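Attaching the record inline, Q. Sequence:
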Amino acid sequence: MTRLDIIKLTSVTAIGYHGVFEHEKRDGQPFITDAVLHLDVSAAAATDDLKLTANYGAVAETIVAMVTGEAFDLIETLSVRMVEKILADFPAVQAVEVTVHKPKAPIQVPFGDVSITVFRSRDEVQPSTTETAGTSTGETSTAETPGTAESSSSDKSAVPAGRP
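Structure, as predicted:
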């Protein structure tokens, strides 16, 4: 097997409501996400066809939708769900590494950052029976992924009720 090519997105930032404390779920805080997409870009490069690669703009929108969407207690849960979603929605991606940073975590000692990095390859993730994968550009229905290529960025369905 040849080594896969890499697309990197760094410092994708959004306010999320993840954490074990009530004030984290109520007030929210910034989450910063880095994603490393492993894929073969040969066909896309040869044909200059976006459909043959991963649309990194749509990937960034997926990341923001995940951070601003359903609230989890653990960033571990957020990270795993995020890699599963990226692999489900972007068929060209063969593996993905996601790092979620929580720089404002409620830690009582001085610290610079806390983060988790999760890596999954396509053969490690079982497709969900409730999700339908989009095209390689990440185009999915609005109901499935608010904020992706086909939906409006003003779609508020990703924000739980009662949140700004």
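Helices lie at 22-27, 42-47, 56-68, 75-89. Residues 129-164 have pLDDT under 50 and may be disordered.

More tomorrow.
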